[in-house]
Structure formats: structure tokens, C-alpha cells
Amino acid sequence: MLSAPPAASLITHLMLQDFRTYADLDLAVSRPLVALVGENGAGKTNVLEAISLFMPGRGLRRAELSDMVRQGGPGSFAISVTLETPYGEHRLGTGLERPGDEGRVSRICRIDALPASSPAAFAEHLRIVWLTPDLDALFRGPAGDRRRFLDRLVLAVDAEHGARVNALERALRSRNRVLEDIPDDRLWLDALEREVAELAIAVAAARRETVERLAALILATRDENSPFPFATLTLEGEIDALVATLPAVDAEDRYRAMLREGRPRDRAAGRTLIGPQATDLLVRHGPKDIPAAMASTGEQKALLIGLVLAHARLVGHMSGIAPFILLDEVAAHLDPRRRAGLFDTLESLGGQVWMTGADLGLFSELEGRADLLQVQPGVIESIKIR
């Protein structure tokens, strides 16, 4: 798993038009580490969000595309990056077209000026992982937050995972409607449950494979002296137990039977109670062997950073592409030892890293090692510490 180093790429130009607070931005960078510094609300996170849209989904804020257009703009936006890779230069673009006569909006994707079918096509050229402040409560929050985090881990190594998850959600909604409106239509329910079972096992299997690979990588590369403790990971849920113990075909049959038997209960609940939509990702603080939720706030932050860094390594080794890493305000709450350890680890991963922070002092030790950029509303300029 750890033999060949992944190929490293750089974004050398980022262009934004009518995106969030940026009317027209043409930003050139040249280093693997990029630090964006500015006051809250200046537009730092907007830059990370723009880059995150080169993955399937709605980006690191999980916002609607229509909410990303610039206030007072034409109602559309465009993002493009020039990507320097070991195999040549590529230009990737995405955005939102201006609404047509019927008021519909359409996302566009282009690779080297040619139309791409969906954002999943970008995975041939780049992979992206990120960490944002809203994940600080991940271990203490509801299971749904951890499922979304888990699916993002999978999506970074399997660009089609998001489409499967969305298809499963649609199939489950259809089953719930039929159970509510016409619960005696057994043929229709049988057909829907066949579709649900196929999608559910595929989603659960993809999650399990990613978690097992990530857990193995963490075990193989853990460092007891690291400022970021290692995590142990397991999946909890009835569907996950099926996938762990049965071949896929047998797991589908068993889950179909569970759905059929559970129709009265699911109808009373108004939702399907068993399936990947009930999975939880259980994380433990490895060195202390305690649930992550029981660790201190500082330990949870360090554990989460360690988990994201391990995931970045996994993405690189599984895809052959060192991922871009987006870190929003990640250094602000780290002590000097952990901050220095973070910067050293990021450099060792090989991928380009985009970081934000309100205090220039957080990045003082990166002078000469990173592109340091001052962010003001709509404008980004290079800065010198001295």
C-alpha cells in the first residue's frame, strides 16, 4: 500500500468570476503551501470553497450553487484552475450558468476547454480533502454528521460514491411514500426494495473498504511521538454487519428480507429504520483507547487532524494522486509544537495545501516555505512577514 509515492500537482492559477465576494480574481501561486491571511469575512474560506467544487457534491460548505453567486452579479459564476502535473498542464473549469427563460440553472464542468459530464470527471486529474471548523464537534455530535464525514472520505477515493448515495436516498424516499400511500402494493414494494438493497449494499461495501484501508494505513504508519494521536475506526450498524459477514449477493437477499419484514414498523415510523442511513462511524483515541467523544477538546481536535492527514495519505496511495488539502482556520487553536508538527507533516504529504487564518503570526515560520497571501474583500495580494 505504501510503495509508490503519489504524483504531486500544483494549482498555479485560480480564476474566479462573480463567485461569492469575488467579481474577478486571477491569483497566481507557485508553492506547495499556500496561506491565506485576513480578517473574518474577508473571503478566505470562499477561496477554499471554490477549489472544493472540483469534487462531486456541493463543496466544503454544502451550500446550494445558487447561493454562491456574487451579490449584484449576473446570477452566474465561473471558477477555473490551471493545474501543473507531472504529465503536463491542464485547465479545469466549473461554474453555474446564467438562468434561462425557464429559470433553470445548470452547472458546467470543463476539462481543457472540453465539456465534462459531471464533477466526477475531475477525479482523473485531482483529489481533494478538507478540514473546516464545523467538524470540531464531529465526535460529540449526531451520527448523521459522522456519516456525511464518512461519505466524504469515501468520495475522495471513489468519485462515483456520491451518485450511489444520492440514488439510495431517492429510492428510500420512494419506498417511504409507497408505504404511506399504498402499503398493500406488494409488487411495487418488492421492486423498490430490490433497488434499495442493491444500492445499500454497494454503499455499505464502499464505506467498509475505505474504513478498513484507512484503519490499516493508520496502524502501519502510526507514530507514538506524533503530536496528532492515531485513531481506531469501526462501523456500527445492522447493514454493516451483513456486509462484513456475507457475500454481496447474499447480503442483498438478507437485506431485502429485512425490508419486507419491517414494512409495518417502517410505515409507522415514517422512514426506513435499517440500512446505510443508520450507520455510525465509531472513532477511538488510539493511545488512550477511549471513545473520541470522551477525550478533551484539544485531544479531539488533534485526533481529527491526524485522521484527516491519514486520509490524505490513503487518497494518495489509492488514487496515485497526492490530494489537495484545504484547511480552514486549522492552526488557530494549536499550540506551537502541534502547529510546527502540522506544517512539517503537510510538506511531507506531497500535495498542495491551502490554509486560512486571521493571524499572520500563525504562519510566521512558513516564510520562504509558503506563498503568504493577504485577503481583503475581493482582493488577494502577496505579503512579506518582514
From TrEMBL:
InterPro entries: DNA-binding_RecF, DNA-binding_RecF_CS, P-loop_NTPase, RecF/RecN/SMC_N, RecF_2. Residues 11-365 form the RecF/RecN/SMC N-terminal domain. Keywords: ATP-binding, Cytoplasm, DNA damage, DNA repair, DNA replication, DNA-binding, Nucleotide-binding, SOS response. Its main location: cytoplasm. It holds the Pfam family SMC_N. ATP binds at G38, E39, N40, G41, A42, G43, K44, T45. NCBIfam families: recf (TIGR00611). PANTHER family: DNA REPLICATION AND REPAIR PROTEIN RECF. Belongs to the RecF family. This is DNA replication and repair protein RecF. It comes from Microvirga puerhi. The gene is recF.
